[in-house]
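Q: what sequence does this backbone want?
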C-alpha cells in the first residue's frame, strides 16, 4: 500500500475521533473541506488514537469473562480489522500486529478456553509494548468494591482481583499483579452462597475453587509467559461458570 493511500485510510478511520476531539477541545467548527494531504501525526497523537480504540479490549474481556462469546466477537473483530501501526514509537508496530492476531483468535474462537487465552495474550501485549517503548504507564488505583449479598460481594471481589491482574500485565506492574492475587486470598464460595440453579453442577462449582487455586499458584510465577497462561486459565474459569447464563451473570451488563 502506498503511503498516500494509507494516510487516506487513516484519515477516514480517525475522522470520527478527530471530530469528537475537535468539538470538545475548541469552540470552532471543524473544517468543512477534506484536507488534500495529511502531515505526519506526532507519535503521541497516534498513540492516543490507538488507545481510544483499544478501549474495546475492556468490553471484549468482560464478554469473555461472562462466557458470552457472541458479545465478544464484535469488539474483537473490530480490533483485528482496525489498528493503525504507522507513526507509533519506533520498534513497537509488531505489538499491534500481534495484538490484532490475538483479537482475530477471540473473534473466531469456538470455545471459551481459546478466547480466554487469546484475551490474556492481548493484555500482555499492552504491557510488552509499554516496556519496549520504556513508558511508565499510570493507571488509576481501584478501590475494593462492596455489595449487598454475599454472592455479589464475592463476585465483585473477583472482578476487582481481575482488574488488578489486568493492570499488572498491561502497565506492566509486579505490584498490581501481586495485589490482584492477594485479592483472591479469601475462601471460595460454596453452593450454599450461590443461586439455586440446576445448571450449577458439582463440576461447574469446582471452577470457583479453581480460580482461587490458580491465583495462589500464580504467586510463584515470575515470567510473563507463565503469568499469561495463568491469567488465561483464570478468565476461562470465570467464563465456564458464567456461560451458563452469559447474559445474566458476570461483568459488563447493564444495571
Ligand atoms: C504499540 C504499543 C502499545 C500498545 C500495544 C499499547 N500501548 Fe498503551 N501506550 C503506548 C504509548 C507509546 C503510550 C504513551 C503515549 C500516550 O500517552 O498515548 C501509552 C500509554 C498508555 C496509557 C497511559 C495513557 C495516558 O493517557 O496517560 C495507558 C493507560 C495505556 N497505554 C494502556 C494500554 C492498554 C490497556 C493497552 C492494551 C489494551 C495498551 N496500552 C497497548 C504504547 C502502547
Ligand atoms: C461457580 C460459578 C462462578 C464462578 C467460577 C465465577 N462466578 Fe461470577 N457470578 C456467578 C453468579 C452465580 C453470579 C450472579 C450473582 C448474583 O447476582 O447474586 C456472578 C456474578 C458476577 C459478577 C456481577 C456481580 C454484580 O453484582 O454486579 C461479576 C463482576 C463476576 N461474577 C465476576 C467473576 C469473575 C471475575 C470470576 C472469575 C475470577 C467469576 N465471577 C467466577 C458465578 C460464578
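A:
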Amino acid at each position: 500500500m502506498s503511503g498516500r493511500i494509507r494516510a487516506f485510510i487513516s484519515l477516514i478511520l480517525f475522522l470520527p475521533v478527530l471530530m469528537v476531539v475537535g468539538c470538545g477541545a475548541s469552540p470552532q467548527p471543524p473544517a468543512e473541506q477534506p484536507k488534500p494531504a495529511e502531515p505526519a501525526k506526532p507519535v503521541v497523537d497516534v498513540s492516543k488514537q490507538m488507545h481510544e480504540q483499544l478501549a474495546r479490549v475492556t468490553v471484549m474481556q468482560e464478554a469473555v469473562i461472562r462466557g458470552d462469546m457472541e458479545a465478544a466477537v464484535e469488539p474483537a473483530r473490530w480490533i483485528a480489522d482496525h489498528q493503525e501501526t504507522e507513526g507509533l514509537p519506533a520498534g513497537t508496530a509488531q505489538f499491534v500486529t500481534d495484538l490484532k492476531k490475538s483479537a482475530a483468535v477471540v473473534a473466531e474462537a469456538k470455545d471459551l478456553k481459546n478466547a480466554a487465552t487469546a484475551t490474556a495474550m492481548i493484555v500482555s501485549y499492552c504491557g510488552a509494548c509499554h516496556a519496549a517503548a520504556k513508558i511508565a504507564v499510570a493507571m488509576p488505583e481501584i478501590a475494593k468494591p462492596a455489595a449487598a449479598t454475599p454472592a455479589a460481594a464475592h463476585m465483585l471481589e473477583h472482578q476487582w482481583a481481575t482488574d488488578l491482574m489486568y493492570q499488572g500485565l498491561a502497565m506492566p506492574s509486579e505490584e498490581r499483579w501481586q495485589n490482584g492475587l492477594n485479592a483472591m486470598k479469601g475462601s471460595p464460595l460454596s453452593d450454599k452462597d450461590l443461586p439455586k440453579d440446576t445448571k450449577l453442577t458439582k463440576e461447574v462449582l469446582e471452577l470457583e475453587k479453581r480460580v482461587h487455586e490458580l491465583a495462589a499458584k500464580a504467586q510463584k510465577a515470575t515470567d510473563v509467559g507463565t503469568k499469561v497462561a495463568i491469567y488465561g486459565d483464570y478468565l476461562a474459569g470465570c467464563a465456564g461458570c458464567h456461560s451458563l447464563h452469559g447474559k445474566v451473570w458476570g461483568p459488563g451488563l447493564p444495571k
